[in-house]
Amino acid sequence: xPALIPxxxxxxxxTPLLDSKNQDPVPASGSPVRWGVISTGxxxxxxxxxxxxxxxxxxxxxxxxxxxxAEAFASEHGFQSAYGDDGGLPGYxxxxxxxxxxxxxxxxxxxxxxxxxxxxxxxxxxxxxEKPLTINAREAEDLVRLAKDKSLFLMEAVWTRFLPxxxxxxxxxxxxxxxxxxWLQADLGFPAPHNPESRLWRREDGGGALMDVGVYPLxxxxxxxxxxxxxxxxxxLTDGGVDSETALTLSYSSGAQVQAMTSLTASTPQTATVCGxxxxxxxNAPLFNPTELTITSGSGEQRVEKFTLAGHGYTYQxxxxxxxxxxxxxxxxxxPLADTLATMALLDAARAQAGIKYPAD
Length: 361
Ligand SMILES: NC(=O)c1ccc[n+]([C@@H]2O[C@H](COP(=O)([O-])OP(=O)(O)OC[C@H]3O[C@@H](n4cnc5c(N)ncnc54)[C@H](OP(=O)(O)O)[C@@H]3O)[C@@H](O)[C@H]2O)c1
Prior knowledge:
Elements: E1 3-4, E2 33-38, H1 42-51, E3 57-63, H2 67-77, E4 81-83, H3 91-96, E5 103-106, H4 110-122, E6 126-129, H5 137-150, E7 154-156, H6 164-175, E8 181-189, H7 209-213, H8 215-225, E9 230-237, E10 243-251, E11 257-263, E12 272-276, E13 279-283, E14 292-297, E15 302-306, H9 315-326, H10 337-354
Parallel strand pairs: 2-3, 2-5, 3-4, 5-6, 6-7, 8-11
Antiparallel strand pairs: 1-9, 8-12, 9-10, 10-11, 12-13, 13-14, 14-15
Helix pairs in contact: 4-5, 5-10
Bound molecules: NADP nicotinamide-adenine-dinucleotide phosphate (NAP).
NADP nicotinamide-adenine-dinucleotide phosphate binds near residues 109, 131 and 199.
């Protein structure tokens, strides 16, 4: 039986488009914004190297569970302050007390996002938090409520939405060139070595394929078709209780269908194909950071559009966060909180069907 998706707030039909003529993320868009980065892990390092490219981003502070790691990361990337755990106070709490930090980027494992982002909002900091925003919709709703109460900026770091290629795909879909979208196929799988200590495989960290990469095929679904009416999910669970594969079918009131899959064991095409009554659009791999779109008309004519990236591609998202803060916005129009809540509701419904449970549920 498909799970019906509960209606919360009306969802924007498609991703709002950025100004396609203003796609250079590097020049300043206003006065400097001072960043605090929570974690010294893999993605924190890559995103910070992109942040350093933006002229109005200040690398202010970094925190880690150890002072040594915080200092090493600070000296590698040029942060002004470094905070590790000290006397029972976590490094991130020490960073949150730093009055020089305007906004924090949370890049810890999923299961800690809620506590860390909540502490940041309570400390009066704006928040950009890695995906998935939280472990479940209840936690996400709590953070959204808190950010609204405190008049602070909150955004889930779904960087893919901000890429020029994905913005262009959204533009093509909205233009009607593909006709009415009836079907979407999107997948993201890669063989991750099975390591019971890794966050990818640990239930306590929110491990599994769906939570790690499900947001990317779901982003293509939201961009192409908006919010579905129902979802069906099946998964294979490891002995540790996380999903190594999950397959999703989304159904829309128009009759349109989405097939999405995620895997931590198989190499998959890692592409998205949007199929309409007049043609189709396919992005090249990986669907979270495509540089090519192939548009095929109903009569078989093909056109390829190519895109270049500034940095690793996180620059576009970071530019928009900075621009929102400079303009006093508490929510980013390109990654609205309603879309994050809709995604969390889809993940909750899929997990309930597939039997994936986390300690925070
Ligand atoms: N947007 C993207 O492209 C992208 C790509 C990969 C991952 N992510 C997301 O980013 C997050 C981190 O992924 P990652 O691959 O960077 O993981 P990772 O390499 O394991 O790094 C996570 C870091 O968080 C800190 N940490 C570990 N356990 C913690 C805990 N229990 N509480 C607080 N901090 C803890 C550690 O840093 P310290 O030792 O310094 O404390 C660790 O190095 C995940 O939520 C993931 O979904 C996003």
